[in-house]
Design goal:
This protein has 537 residues and is an alpha/beta fold. It folds into 3 domains: 161 residues, 3-Layer(aba) Sandwich (Rossmann fold); 225 residues, ANL, N-terminal domain (Rossmann fold); 96 residues, GMP Synthetase, Chain A, domain 3. The protein is built from 15 helices and 25 strands. The strands form 5 sheets. A 9-stranded mixed sheet has the order 2-1-11-10-12-13-14-15-16, with helices on both faces. A hairpin with a 2-residue loop joins strand 21 and strand 22. Helix 1 packs antiparallel against helix 2, helix 1 runs parallel beside helix 8 and helix 7 packs across helix 8. The structure holds adenosine-5'-diphosphate. Adenosine-5'-diphosphate binds next to strand 14, strand 19 and strand 20.
Length: 537
C-alpha cells in the first residue's frame, strides 16, 4: 500500500475539534427558557460520548435509526455525533411536519428511540401509540423541565449524561455506511428519505469549508439559523468542528431582534439561513436603525433571494449576501455564488447581476441543463432547461426504495428549471411545478416575487398560477405589506411593468397578513394554490 487508508467516522471531526480547537465554542439559546449557554468543543465531545454510552445502555445497536425532533441547540448537535458516531443513524425529523407525515416518517425509518425538545413533547403525547417501533423517548432537557406524562420509557437527557461516562472510543467501520437520514418534505406523495453516509458528509464538509464556499476559518463565528433538522443544517455542524469556528445555535427565537442580538453579542462573522429569516432581520435593523457590524457574509438559500435583499445588505450593512442553492438530496450544497476570476473585470451592473444568481458548483458536484428530450442545452445563460446534478454527496437511491433515483448515467433530476452561463453560474428560473404557463408561454413565479419584493411597501410576495379558461393559467400575486403600509394594486402593477410585459402581469393582486410557509420555511405554494383555487372564475 502506498498511502495510509484510515477508517473514517464522522465523530472523528469532533475528536479533532476537542484536540485542536478545544476552546472554540458552541453557543446556544436554550429552547426551554431562551437562556444563552456556552460549551467548548471539548465539552461537546465529552457529552456526545456520554450520550453514546447512554444509548448503548438503553439498547441501541449499530444500524438502528434514532430520531431527533429538535431545534438548533448544542444538545441536538451532540446527539448527531453521539448517534452516528456509534454506528447508528441520526434521523432528523422536522417538527413542523403534519401528523400524517410524522406518522409515515417515524414508521418508515423504524426509529428505535426519539430525542425530542421539551417544547415539542405534545407531539408525542398525541402520537406515541402510532409509533409501535419506538422503544423510548429522551427529552433534551434537565430534570426540572421534564414533561409530566404517562407515556412509558421517557428519559431525561441530562440525567442520562450525568449517569454515563465519556470513556468511549468511536468504532471503526466502512465509511460508506449510512450516518444520517433526512426526509424531503414531500409536497406530492409520501416523503422520501435520503440516507447520507459518513464519507459523503465528510466530502461535503470539506467542500463547504473552501474559501469559494462558506469561506470561514478558526477565527470565525457562524450563526447557524438553518435547522439541524433539515438537510443537515447545510453541513455547518460538521464543518464547524472541522474548521474550528464558533457556532451559534439560536434555539426557537427566529424574530429579527433575537437574531440581531446573537449576531451582535457574539460578533458573528457569517450567518446562514433562508430568505424569510433575513427579511425579518433587515426589517428589525431598519426599524431600530442598527447596523450589523461584525458580519462579513450572509449565506442565503432554500428559496430564491430577491435582488433587493442583496442591495439592502450591501448598501446599509456592507455585507455580501452569498446566494447558495441545494436540496435535501444533495446534502444539500449544489452551488454557491462567490466571484470567479472571470467576472471580476465585468462592468459593475453585469457583475452584480451575475452575483445574484445561485452560483457555481464546488468540485465534487457537476450540473447540466437539458430539454424535454434529455438533450443537454448550451451554457449561454439564456436557454432554460431542467437542472440535473451528479456528485459525491448527491443521492443515488432513496432510503428503502427499489429503483435508483438517478438515470443510467448517474444524473439526478432536481425538478428545477435553470440557466447556466458561460462563466459556469447557474440561475434557478423556477421549480418546474411552480412555473406559470399562460397561453403556452412561461412566466417565472420567482422573478415576479423577486421584483415585487423590491417595492418599497412590500415585505413578502408570492406568485402562483391559477387555472384560467382562456389562457390555461394566469398569475396571481399575493402580497404581505410592510408594517404600517398599504400599497395599492395599481402601484404594484406599475412597479412590475418595468420588468414584465403586459401579458405577464398578474391578473390580480391580493393583500394578506401572512403567507403560509412549508415545514422548511418556504412559501407554501401548494396551500396558496388550494386557498385561491378558482379565483379567476
Ligand atoms: P423541500 O422541498 O422539503 O423544501 P429542499 O430544501 O430539499 O426541500 O428543497 C430544495 C429546493 O429548494 C430546490 O430544488 C429548489 O427548488 C429550492 N431552492 C433551494 N435553494 C434555492 C435558491 N437559492 N434559489 C431558488 N430555489 C432554491
Amino acid at each position: 500500500m502506498n498511502m495510509q487508508n484510515h477508517p473514517f467516522n464522522l465523530a472523528h471531526l469532533l475528536d479533532f475539534a476537542g484536540k485542536y480547537h478545544p476552546t472554540q465554542k458552541v453557543i446556544t439559546r436554550r429552547v426551554e427558557d431562551d437562556k444563552i449557554v456556552e460549551h467548548t468543543y471539548k465539552e461537546v465531545l465529552s457529552r456526545a460520548k456520554r450520550l453514546a454510552n447512554a444509548l448503548i445502555k438503553l439498547g441501541a445497536s449499530p444500524g438502528d435509526c434514532i430520531g431527533t425532533i429538535a431545534l438548533n441547540t448544542h444538545r441536538h448537535m451532540e446527539s448527531w455525533y453521539g448517534i452516528s458516531g456509534q454506528g447508528c443513524i441520526s434521523h432528523t425529523i422536522n417538527p413542523r411536519l403534519s401528523m400524517k407525515q410524522l406518522h409515515y416518517i417515524v414508521n418508515h425509518a423504524e426509529d428505535k428511540f426519539i430525542l425530542i425538545d421539551p417544547i415539542f413533547w405534545p407531539i408525542i403525547e398525541g402520537m406515541h401509540s402510532k409509533f409501535p417501533k419506538v422503544e423510548g423517548y429522551i427529552v433534551l432537557t434537565e430534570k426540572e423541565n421534564m414533561p409530566k406524562t404517562e407515556v412509558p420509557n421517557v428519559y431525561c437527557y441530562e440525567e442520562l449524561l450525568e449517569s454515563s461516562t465519556d470513556d468511549y472510543t468511536w468504532p471503526e467501520f466502512d465509511p460508506h455506511q449510512g450516518s444520517s437520514l433526512c426526509y424531503t418534505s414531500g409536497t406530492t406523495g409520501d416523503p422520501k428519505g435520503v440516507m447520507y453516509t459518513h464519507i459523503s458528509n465528510l466530502w461535503h464538509a470539506y467542500a463547504l469549508s473552501l474559501s469559494d464556499a462558506i469561506a470561514v476559518g478558526a477565527q470565525d463565528t457562524i450563526l447557524v439559523v438553518v435547522p439541524l433538522f433539515h438537510a443537515n443544517s447545510w453541513g455547518l455542524a460538521y464543518a464547524g468542528p472541522m474548521i474550528g469556528c464558533n457556532l451559534i445555535m439560536p434555539g426557537k427565537r427566529m424574530d429579527g431582534q433575537a437574531i440581531f442580538e446573537l449576531i451582535d453579542k457574539y460578533q458573528a462573522t457569517t450567518a446562514a439561513g433562508v430568505p424569510t429569516v433575513w427579511t425579518n432581520l433587515l426589517e428589525y435593523a431598519d426599524a431600530s436603525g442598527r447596523i450589523m457590524e461584525s458580519l462579513k457574509d450572509v449565506v442565503v438559500g432554500g428559496s430564491a433571494a430577491p435582488p433587493s435583499m442583496f442591495t439592502r445588505f450591501r448598501e446599509k450593512h456592507d455585507i455580501d449576501l452569498i446566494h447558495a442553492w441545494g436540496m435535501t438530496e444533495m446534502s444539500p450544497l449544489g452551488t454557491i455564488n462567490r466571484p470567479s476570476g472571470g467576472i471580476m473585470s465585468l462592468p459593475d451592473k453585469d457583475y452584480r447581476r451575475i452575483r445574484r444568481k445561485q452560483g457555481r458548483p464546488i468540485f465534487g458536484v457537476d450540473i447540466k441543463i437539458v430539454n424535454d428530450q434529455g438533450e443537454e442545452l448550451p451554457r449561454d445563460g439564456k436557454e432554460v432547461g431542467r437542472l440535473l446534478v451528479k456528485g459525491n454527496w448527491v443521492v443515488h437511491t432513496y432510503f428503502k426504495a427499489e429503483q435508483p433515483a438517478i438515470d443510467g448515467d448517474g444524473w439526478f433530476d432536481t425538478g428545477d428549471m435553470a440557466t447556466i452561463d458561460p462563466y459556469g453560474y447557474m440561475e434557478i428560473i423556477d421549480r418546474a411545478k411552480d412555473l406559470i404557463k399562460s397561453g403556452g408561454e412561461w412566466i417565472s413565479s420567482v422573478d415576479m416575487e423577486n421584483h415585487a419584493m423590491g417595492h418599497e411597501e412590500v415585505s413578502l410576495a408570492a406568485a402562483i398560477a391559477i387555472n384560467h379558461d382562456k389562457w390555461g393559467e394566469r398569475p396571481l400575486l399575493i402580497v404581505v405589506p410592510k408594517e404600517g403600509h398599504k400599497p395599492s394594486k395599481e402601484s404594484l402593477l406599475t412597479h412590475l411593468s418595468s420588468e414584465f410585459s403586459k401579458w405577464q402581469l398578474p391578473d390580480d393582486v391580493i393583500f394578506v397578513e401572512e403567507i403560509p410557509l412549508t415545514a422548511t420555511g418556504k412559501f407554501s405554494k401548494l396551500s396558496l394554490r388550494e386557498q385561491f383555487k378558482g379565483h379567476f372564475g
